[in-house]
Amino acid sequence: MDQSESDVIIVGGGVVGSTLALLLGEAGWQVAVVDAAPAPAGDARLGQGKPALRVSALTAASQRLLMALDVWPWVASRRVSAYRGMQVWDAEGSGEIDFDADEVGVDALGHIVENDLLLAGLARRLQSLPNVEWLQGVRVTDYERQQSAARDGACHASDAVITLDSGTQRRAPLIVGADGAHSPLRSLAGIPVSERETGQAAVVTTVRTAVGHGAVARQAFLATGPLAFLPLTVDGRDDHCSIVWSTTPGEARRLTALADTEEGRAQLGIELAHGLGERLGDVEVIDAAPHFPITQRHAQRYVDDGLALVGDAAHSLHPLAGQGVNLGLMDAAVLAEEWVRARRRGAPPGDRRILVRYERRRRNENAAMLAAMQGFQRLFGSRQPALRLARNWGLSGVNRFMPVKRLLIRQALGEYGDLPERCR
């Protein structure tokens, strides 16, 4: 069997895996990306017409990373939607908080980007790097570590060997799992994961609104869960939004079924408008409305000998703060930063000390975000009168207290914690 060698094998070619491949590829590493997804279709119409269902809310820190990698200019020339304001309120009370970019002197609080467009921008840059190899439409069926002669023949080192469904094998001293929340590589490596069912499912769709969104992201906390209207700019108009509605699984199934018929879509639009308190007027649903269960996961460790987990393979959280892809991009940036620095010092590939530094920098920070999302869900999901009163007082109080409000805006911008250099 073929045992082609690379410096690093990245399993998973999504946004996080592709970003890591680009970071390491630019640094001169021999990178192999193994992705179960087939090769993407041509990008001629990306960023045109109806927006894609899957979008990401990128923070300023993530934008700076993509700018440094020369991905952002191409993506932005197609279609991105900046939002300058955020409104969050309790639909069952009077508590509300409003954020504005002017309050911290920035142009935007973040950008909504279609995932297909972001992937195409990353792929375009990766194609310019001859030291990055892309294996698409293949799956990893086995993983093991083997002793092998070091490349200078002086000693022996432990390499990762993965077997693909084609029967071929690939070898590298470093391997990264970027293969999603149900990560097959994480399972093959025997890394346990803590799971917490949230009791909710997220419905996603795209809508057209009667009132322009004005570059403001809106989120209402309803009795069954948060409803988010994420602003999209289409052909220069601000009358489109991407929807993420977190609700009970039964309600999610009902909402998904409504989108199957013209009459049902009209009813879904009425319910969306009502859920948002009619703030954007009538709502027209213009796409399907699939749903997916919301489960928070956290790997009990991010690293093993010569192996690291990033993105959803390491952690997945409730979408109410829109931080999932941003946390993954920070994982990739920190991991690449540690590896590139260590290699300049002559450290061997797979040095466990490098991996431990990555885990130390990222795991606690991600755990804090997971805990915050769990706390928010419980606070706003509670029907207890005392808690409902407290959360309304809290929202209104923070809205009036500018120092705390500025701190929360900086959090929304991704400007907190141990930021890697390329995100500053």
User: Roughly what is the average pLDDT, rounded to an integer?
Assistant: 88
* Structure classification: alpha/beta
Number of helices: 11
Content of β-strand: 25-35%
Rounded Rg: 22 Å
The percent of residues in helical segments reads 25-40%
What is the number of strand segments?
22
Largest sheet: 9 strands, mixed
- Segments where pLDDT lies below 50 for 5+ residues? none
Distance between the termini: 45 Å
- Shape assignment: globular
Cofactor: FAD
Keywords: FAD, Flavoprotein, Monooxygenase, Oxidoreductase
Family: Belongs to the UbiH/COQ6 family.
Pfam families: FAD_binding_3
Describe this protein's structure.
Residues 6-369 form the FAD-binding domain. Keywords: FAD, Flavoprotein, Monooxygenase, Oxidoreductase. Belongs to the UbiH/COQ6 family. Pathway: Cofactor biosynthesis; ubiquinone biosynthesis. It holds the Pfam family FAD_binding_3. This protein has 424 residues and is of the alpha/beta class. The chain is built from 11 helices and 22 strands. Strands 6, 7, 14, 15, 16, 17, 18, 19 and 22 form a 9-stranded mixed sheet that branches. Strands 9-3-2-13-21-20 form a 6-stranded mixed sheet. Strand 20 and strand 21 form a beta hairpin. Helix 1 (15-26) runs parallel beside helix 4 (115-126) and helix 8 (324-344) runs antiparallel to helix 9 (352-381). The longest helix is centred in the last third of the chain and has 30 residues, at 352-381. The relative contact order is 0.17.
